[in-house]
Amino acid sequence: MSDIVFRSDVTTELVRSAAHDSDVVFAARVSTQGSTSLAAATTEASDRDQGLIRFLMRDRHGSPFEHNSFTFFVEAPIFVFRELMRHRMASYNEESGRYRELRPIFYVPARERRLVQKGKPGAYEFHEGTEEQFEIVDAEVRARSEEAYASYQRMLEAGVAREVARTVLPLNLYSSAYVTVNARSLMNVISLRTKHEGAAFPSFPQREIEMVAELMEKHFAEAMPMTHAAFDVNGRIAP
After folding, report:
1. Helices (H), 70-194
2. Domain for residue 126, yes or no?
3. Of 13, 107, 183, 200, most Cβ neighbours within 10 A?
């Protein structure tokens, strides 16, 4: 059996982007300038343009924020992809358990991961676990992952199809996918999947998907700083 790897992180790598603050500007100005708005498509956004971007964000004129693209390569546990794909706002191409033997890489919570859940649905609070709770989580996750992957390997060795053998694998198995999304949709993901003091509405994301969203936000802020600043100033609400 291949050596099993346990991880407590996620990977969110920006593969390529066609995303600039000026994309928002030319898309917005076509409504009043027609073809002369093309000039904005070949120039960098100016300080004057920042006011336009903030106006669009504040008044929730959303479509100008769609004329751009980010493609991320994400490695995360399967349960994270389930949550990410619930947004239905991106294009996905994920590795296939039908066409390749899945790698023995499993998520295990890090020691700093809060383990105790209190509250009601939609308003959970998470608190530090005890050393005993961490030890049982760590031991059980590792043991069940190893057991499941051994079962998977036995079926493959017996000639069972990959699509059948994979049925025993747990949700903490890592998968990988390309995720392509525009800034408007990305702001929606960030708004719902990060917890931030400046947010107009509270969010209660699971920590593991928050880790993905935080890394996506970092790339977004670097590529479109004026747009990201307007998003922050206006309560982190997607337009």
Report:
1. 78-85, 131-157, 162-165, 183-193
2. yes
3. 183
Q: Which residues are catalytic?
A: 193
Range of the domain at 209: 5-19+68-233
Element (DSSP H or E) covering residue 95: none
Q: CA-CA distance, 230 to 92, in Å (whole number)?
A: 28
Query: Which residue reads 């036995």 in tokens?
Result: 154
Pairwise CA distance, residues 166 & 52, whole Å: 51
Residue type (1 letter), 47 = D
Q: pTM for the full model?
A: 0.93
Q: Which amino acid makes up residue 118? A: K
Strand partners, 13: 73
Number of domains in the chain: 1
The residue with greater pLDDT, 37 or 148, is: 148
Question: What b/e sequence results for 178-200 when a residue is b if at least 16 CB atoms lie within 10 Å of its CB, and e otherwise?
Answer: bbbbbbbbbbbbbbbbbeeeebe
The per-residue pLDDT for range 122-139, each reduced to its tens digit, is 777 888 899 999 999 999
Q: Count the Cβ atoms, other than its own, within 10 Å of residue 96.
A: 12
